[in-house]
Amino acid sequence: MRWVVADVGGTNTRMAFAQDGKLVTGSVQWFLNDDYPTFADVLVDFVQDAPVDGLCVAIAGPVMPGHVRLTNRDWSFDADQLSMVLGGAKVRIINDLAAVGHALPYLAPDAVVPVVPGRAAPGGQSLVVGIGTGFNVSLAHGNGVMLAEEGHTGLSIGVWRVLQDHLGEKAAAFETVEQVFSGSGLRALHLALGGVEMPSQQIVRDARLTMGVFVTALAALVRDMTFQFMPLGGIYFNGGLARAVVGLPETGEILAAARVQDMFEGTLSDIPMCVVVDDAAALAGCVACLERT
């Protein structure tokens, strides 16, 4: 069986072939979404008329029955349409963070880097926290992954207090999780703190005040999500901005200091946190989904 797997983000699309339940070595390709009017055009460009038995697409956005629409790009498509493009191949569409959740059991040891040490509970559920162009989470347990759109939820009181302490009345401009914890959110936070317009990666590298506030707010968010999701199997950060932020020397210390202590027999104080550094993680999750269908 020859499959195509795709990870469609707001800016780029990664695609690869898979065979016998594994990614085909050397087949991963990157595409700049701005170069294509639709995802179907990217698919045609990648496949180049090669016979395909199945397709799994991980998208940055909610997967609705019958169709999907990206939250960070004006692209929409459905499984039937993509099946026709591939000559009747089986098609499955999943959320990109759900794909990373499916991939967790299959990631190589060097695909993750520890951020906060701890001890994962055997059989415990794991939380994937995606911070990039947008924000979302997925909760993985065994072969199952819970769907979510956490980025559109309102800010918790813990995060709000961090923002209010540093921004005062300007904190009112930040209402949802994604309005803070995303590339655009980081840039807006930097401006609200009196900084000048600059790319997210430059803010991470050069703006110590902004990053201090951002990481402190992130620690408050992670603490709240610990109660929400009870991720005794560990917390996995994923996404370009997540890798940059949790790679800062102080991030691990701040996250560790904010962990829940002395509750539920101490289990929440020992949750490990790490960052996924494998760009192909979502693709591996797509392969796992096709294997199970």
From TrEMBL:
Transmembrane segments: none annotated. The keyword Kinase applies. Keywords: Kinase, Transferase. InterPro entries: ATPase_NBD (IPR043129), Bacterial_glucokinase (IPR050201), Glucokinase (IPR003836). It comes from the Bacteria. The keyword Membrane does not apply. Belongs to the bacterial glucokinase family. This is Glucokinase. It comes from Pseudosulfitobacter koreensis. The lineage of its organism: Bacteria, Pseudomonadati, Pseudomonadota, Alphaproteobacteria, Rhodobacterales.
